[in-house]
């Protein structure tokens, strides 16, 4: 009889503790969902890219440079459903940003433009890294979106400067002067050893 009572009481405590665990688990899941929802809303609010060309040169380049056009179009499409959609979008943006290095137009294939493209790619890759973490740091993600926008502005301004420089007419004799200043065309500065036999 005592054995039955002990078994009954122990079963009662086991069932009561299981219900407590279920309630705790349900409360924890609810808190986690609320936290994810807050992170999602913060990222959705901060996910605003400068997807339209800011300068005339950038607009003209959009027509001739396919990778640039595709990159801006990818930035224009904003995900809406959940964090997973933002993660997929960041992967797509990273892929399009990496493609910018492939076919740079010859007018823009200069170090200032290439360095700005590299900086833009680095920021986009950091965004992809942060948004794919298990716990997404929403403040860092929105900060990176703002930094990517700054890189986009910098790149487009450099495009404009490059176009403006190309419009400046070359003065007579300037091309010859530039050739003379070119260090790769200079005669090497070699010391002549007086004691070394020479062929004349």
Describe this structure in words.
By secondary structure, the chain is an all-alpha fold. It has one domain: Up-down Bundle (Four Helix Bundle (Hemerythrin (Met), subunit A)). The protein is 70% helix and 0% strand. The chain has seven helices and no strands. α1 runs parallel beside α6, α2 crosses α3 and α3 packs antiparallel against α4. The longest helix is centred in the N-terminal third of the chain and has 45 residues. The protein is elongated, with a radius of gyration of 31 Å.
Low-confidence stretches: none
CATH architecture grouping = Up-down Bundle
**The CATH topology:** Four Helix Bundle (Hemerythrin (Met), subunit A)
Largest sheet: none
Quickly count the domains: 1
Q: Terminal Cα separation, in Å?
A: 125 Å
How do the helices and strands line up, and which of them pair or pack?
Elements: H1 2-46, H2 56-64, H3 66-76, H4 83-99, H5 111-131, H6 138-167, H7 174-181
Helix pairs in contact: 1-6, 2-3, 3-4, 4-5, 5-6
């Amino acid at each position: 009889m005592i054995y039955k009572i002990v078994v009954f009481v122990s079963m009662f405590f086991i069932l009561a503790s299981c219900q407590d665990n279920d309630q705790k688990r349900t409360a924890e899941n609810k808190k986690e969902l609320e936290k994810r929802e807050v992170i999602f809303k913060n990222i959705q609010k901060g996910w605003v890219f400068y997807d339209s060309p800011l300068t005339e040169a950038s607009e003209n380049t959009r027509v001739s440079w396919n990778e640039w056009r595709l990159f801006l179009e990818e930035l224009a499409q904003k995900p809406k459903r959940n964090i997973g959609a933002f993660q997929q979008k960041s992967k797509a943006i990273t892929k399009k940003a990496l493609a910018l290095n492939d076919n740079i137009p010859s007018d823009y294939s200069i170090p200032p433009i290439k360095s700005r493209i590299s900086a833009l790619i680095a920021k986009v890759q950091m965004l992809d890294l942060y948004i794919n973490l298990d716990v997404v740091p929403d403040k860092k993600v929105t900060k990176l979106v703002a930094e990517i926008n700054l890189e986009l502005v910098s790149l487009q301004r450099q495009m404009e400067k490059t176009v403006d420089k190309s419009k400046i007419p070359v003065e007579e004799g300037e091309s010859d002067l530039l050739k003379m200043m070119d260090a790769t065309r200079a005669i090497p500065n070699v010391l002549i050893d007086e004691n070394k036999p020479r062929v004349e």
